[in-house]
Amino acid sequence: MATQEQSELEKLIREFLEYLEVERDVSPLTVRNYTHYLKRFNDWMWENGSGKLEQITQDNVRQYRLYISRLSDGQGGTLSKKTQGYHAIALRSFLKYLIRTDREALAPEKIDLPKAEAHSLKFLNGEQVDRLLNSPTLSTDVGKRDRAILEVLFSTGLRVSELVSLNRDTIDLGRREFGIIGKGRRQRVVFLSGRAVDWINEYLKIRRDNYKPLFMRHKGKFGPEISDEEVRLTPRSVQRMIKKYARKVKIPVDVTPHVLRHSFATDLLMAGADLRSVQEMLGHKNVSTTQIYTHVTNRQLKDVHDAFHGRGGK
Question: Catalytic site residue 205?
Answer without folding.
Answer: no
